Amino acid sequence: MAEIYRTLLSDEAATEQFAASMALLAKPGDLLALSGDLGAGKTTFARAFIRAFCQASDIEVPSPTFTLVQTYSAHDGIVVFHSDLYRLKGPDEIEDLGLEEERESAILLVEWPDRMPTDWWQDALKIELEHHAAGPKNGRYLVVTSENIDWQHRLINLFGPQ
């Protein structure tokens, strides 16, 4: 995957701000694959993204760890699916979640995307979060990659070339 953007997010607020910026770029058919260790900020990113995209800062956004999928209706009838695949054993189990049918008309935020079918990666925007070497209180490294030319253009328009 081609690296598009890399930065150090100094704290949770920086993660939320970045997620809100990404929400401005999102459109139906987008798949954002959120990777990182436990506690790296995937759910923090997803919550901020959903709140910004739905234009509802007070919306409750629980982690879908146990439900596997949460849905949110946004402006213009666009639906955001937030999925946490941590408990799945492999890509064959994702079929039961019904996400495949929603791929073209909705926005999918997927935590633990390594459990997704391989062909789902083709147009995904991969957002990888990892703890800063000095510890989790000192922020996270964020790396954004994609082979999707449209995503590359959208991010370059937002952040400029890196």
Walk me through this protein's architecture.
The protein has 162 residues and is α/β, with parallel strands linked by helices. It has one domain (3-159): Rossmann fold. The chain is 25% helix and 25% strand. It is built from 4 helices and 7 strands, in the order βαβαββαβββα. It has a 7-stranded mixed β-sheet with strand order 1-7-6-2-5-4-3, covered by helices on one side.
CATH architecture, by name, is 3-Layer(aba) Sandwich
Poorly predicted residue ranges: none
- The CATH homology group name: P-loop containing nucleotide triphosphate hydrolases
Give the structural class: alpha/beta
Shape: globular
Largest sheet: 7 strands, mixed
Order of helices and strands: EHEHEEHEEEH
Cα end-to-end separation: 16 Å
Q: Which range does the strand content fall in?
A: 25-35%
If you average the pLDDT, what whole number results?
86
CATH top level is Alpha Beta
Strand order of the largest sheet: 1-7-6-2-5-4-3
Helical content band: 25-40%
Reported by name, the CATH topology is: Rossmann fold
Number of helices: 4
Q: How many domains comprise the coordinates?
A: 1
Q: What is the number of strand segments?
A: 7
The Cα radius of gyration reads 15 Å
